[in-house]
Amino acid sequence: MLKIAFDPIYAHPLPPGHRFPMLKYELIPGQLLHEGVITQSNLFSPVSVDEENILLTHDANYWQQLRDLTLSSKEQRRIGFPLSAQLVEREVRIAQGTIDGCLYAFEYGVAFNAAGGTHHAGTNWGEGFCMLNDQAIAANYLLNNNLAKRILIVDLDVHQGNGTAQIFKDEPRVFTFSMHGDKNFPFRKERSDLDLSLADGIGDNEYLNLLSSTLPGLITNHQPDLIFYLAGVDILESDKLGKLALSKDACKQRDLFVFEQCKSNNIPVQVSMGGGYSPQIKDIVEAHCNTYRAANDLYF
User: Fold this and answer.
1) Coil, helix or strand for 62?
2) Dihedral sign (CA 56, 58, 64, 66)
3) Where in this chain does the record put each Histone deacetylase domain (predicted)?
4) pLDDT exceeding 90 applies to what percent of the chain?
5) Most buried of 105, 115, 212, 222 (most Cβ within 10 A)?
6) Sign of torsion, CA 260 262 266 272?
C-alpha cells in the first residue's frame, strides 16, 4: 500500500507573498484522490516528533529558540518568514511524517511525505523556508535505533541540500548526493559527499544521462539500507526559480529511474516532495502527482 504522510497543517497559510506555493499541499492529495490513484486509507496524519529525536540532529539552543519563538529577527529573515507556533508545529509534524514514512517504506518498499524536503536547515540554523531538516532527523532516528546501518540521501531538488550536507559532513554512514543548479540558491554551498552542479538551461537528455550514469554506482558502492529521495519539481523549465529546462515528462522519467534503482536493489525509499515554483499551480501539481503515479505504477 502506498502510504503518504499528510496533515491539513501542511497547507497552513503563510504571510502574503508565501501563500501560493502552499496551495499544492492541499491540491496534490485531492488530485490523486480524484483520479483514484489513492484512497483515504493511503493517507496518514503524523503526530509531533519527539524532542529527543530533534536533538539527534539539531543543536539544543537552536531548537529551544525555535520552539519558544525567540529566534532573532536576523535568524528569522534567513528562514524567510516570521515564526509562529503553527509554523513550528507544521515542521515537527513534517519531521515525524518522514520518520513514519521510513517505517512504512521498510514494509511496502516506498512511502511519501506530501511535504518535507526541508534540506536547507542545518544543525543550528534555518534557511530558505526550512526550519527543521526532516530527512536528516529521520536518518539519525534510523541510525540511533539500529534500524539502518548505511543511508543514501538522493537530493534532486534544484537547490543544493546545504543543510543536509553540513549535518552529515562527519558521518560516514550517511552518503549525501545533491544534483542541483550551480548558480542558484544557496549561494554559499556546503560540501556534500557528491555534488553535481548543473549549468543554467540544462535539458532533458543531459540531465537524465548524468543521473543514470551516477546513481547506480553510488548504490553499489555505498550499499544503503534505505534511500531518502528529495523529489523537487523545481527542475522544470517553467519554474521561476529553477533556471533549468526540463520537461514534465523528463521529470517523471527522473522519478521512475530513481524508483527503479531502489526497487531492483531491494532498497526501501522514503520520498519528501521538495520545491516547485512554476507560475501555474497546475504545472506544480501535475509534476508532483507524476512522482506518486510513478511509484504507484512500479510498486503497486
Assistant:
1) helix
2) negative
3) 24-290
4) 89
5) 115
6) negative
